[in-house]
Design goal:
two-stranded antiparallel ribbon, mainly alpha, globular, 15 helices
């Protein structure tokens, strides 16, 4: 389990560094750029989640065939998943390009007039990189299915380092650090989007070139998806995609609640930074979730469901222990960490630190949820995680945030406690705990063991 998990944990560690530096770079731009960047949070999550939905299907199909010892099957599963991912990536790219101004106008407070065009421009540049992001996730998911988590670590690790370097050059103008002149394009927030898109395309090309040297075989000439395989991939990917839409939709609704609280701009600006800091706590859980997903699929392919269950519980318990160890210092130093990322924007720092501390309280249950959901998805069971999202995000989190954050005068039905942003943070923390409990219950029911892929 750890043999598969440690490269994913290492990669996630790099991704955390990338998120922190990304937030730090943008955090030192003007307030309008920071608000625009925070407003992009639900959209970025949604697009990445769509890519991960197809990657989830790739891992489930490839790992099951790999566990059964059928190379022709897992090679075909890879090609078909990749083909469908390419089609999906280009379609979403076009849609996002066209709707970028509309998204910006909807997701930011009415007072953030300077931020709207900045967010729209960022979104359009980011949209150009979506096909590459879909290719990366499809091939990384397939590699995990055959037990290879080291190659994604190396390739995506290079992508992250390139992204950081491009951020450093593209965001800020030319300057001197000590006696050394540093080139700079001075593109601001658009430079951050350009760095993200460019590094994604470079990484996608490397993944395609490298795949031919692995068990997956040559992937350059994937062709048009075959209908029989499309239905197999879609059967797994659609519930995962619906779960992603529901999750991001709830985050969008959550963000709309924040637009109606006092100093909503600071609360929205704090979201991206707080989530980047939170990722330091859940990065091991995410890696262990990936390992559990691959090992559960392989074990079911071997016709060993007991082995699958045992490995999933091992991953979940280890994730819980590591999360507790990380959450304690982050809780203590939340304000200092946020201050490093956000410079002198004290109002935003206060909101970010408050959210981080509330998340720390229940992060261990989120760790269990991540691994249990990853294990069920590795078995091809994406329906139960979808229902988890409906219950926790829409039936609990959004209504709870609405009631706790808004005063009675601002609430539609007159039910409001008026705690402001902290009420929304409490709702997010409590529903995180509920998600952990329900995911454990669903997993223990064992219905994932009989799912056909």
């Amino acid at each position: 389990m750890w043999a598969l998990a440690w490269p994913a944990v290492a990669l996630n560690s790099l991704q955390v560094v990338n998120s922190l530096l990304d937030g730090g770079f943008v955090g030192h731009l003007d307030r309008a750029s920071l608000v625009a960047y925070g407003g992009m949070t639900p959209v970025l999550f949604l697009m990445f989640s769509f890519a991960m939905s197809l990657a989830t299907a790739a891992t489930a199909l490839v790992s099951r065939a790999y566990g059964a010892g059928d190379p022709a099957e897992y090679k075909m599963a890879t090609r078909q998943s990749l083909s469908l991912s390419i089609v999906g990536g280009f379609l979403l790219s076009g849609v996002c390009w066209l709707l970028a101004p509309w998204f910006a106008g909807q997701l930011l407070p009415a007072s953030a007039t300077e931020s709207v065009p900045k967010m729209a421009e960022f979104f359009r540049i980011y949209a150009l990189g979506l096909p590459a992001i879909f290719v990366i996730q499809a091939l990384a998911g397939s590699l995990r299915g055959v037990g290879d988590t080291r190659s994604p670590m190396v390739i995506s690790g290079f992508q992250i380092l390139l992204h950081i370097a491009l951020n450093f050059v593209l965001i800020f103008p030319a300057r001197e650090v000590g006696i050394f002149p540093i080139p700079g394009a001075g593109m601001g927030l658009s430079g951050a989007a350009t760095a993200l898109t460019t590094s994604a395309w470079v990484s996608a090309i490397i993944y395609l070139a490298f795949a031919g040297r692995t068990r997956l075989g040559r992937q350059w000439d994937v062709g048009i998806p075959k209908w029989a395989w499309v239905t197999r991939v879609i059967r797994i990917a659609v519930p995962a995609a619906i779960m992603s839409v529901l999750r991001v939709g709830s985050l969008t609704a959550f963000q709309l609640v924040l637009t109606r609280v006092p100093d909503g701009e600071s609360a929205i600006a704090a979201l991206r930074a707080a989530f980047a800091i939170e990722s330091m706590m859940f990065m091991p859980s995410f890696g262990l979730s990936m390992a559990a997903s691959a090992l559960v699929g392989q074990s079911l392919g071997m016709k060993q469901p007991d082995r699958a269950e045992r490995l999933a519980w091992t991953a979940a318990h280890h994730a819980g222990i590591v999360t507790v160890v990380l959450a304690v210092p982050i809780f203590i130093y939340a304000e200092a960490i946020a201050g490093v990322m956000l410079g002198d924007k004290q109002a935003v720092i206060d909101q970010a630190a408050s959210l981080i501390r509330w998340l720390c309280v229940t992060e261990v249950m989120f760790a269990y949820a991540m691994v249990m959901i990853g294990a069920m998805q590795g078995a091809g069971d994406t329906k139960r995680p979808m229902w988890l999202t409906i219950i926790c995000m829409w039936m609990l989190r959004v209504p709870m945030a609405y009631v706790l954050a808004l005063p009675s005068s601002a609430a539609i039905f007159g039910w409001g406690i008026g705690m402001g942003a902290v009420g929304a943070w409490i709702a997010m923390s409590l529903t995180q705990a509920v998600q952990g409990v329900l995911s454990i219950i669903y997993f223990k029911q064992g219905r994932w063991k009989t799912v056909k892929v």
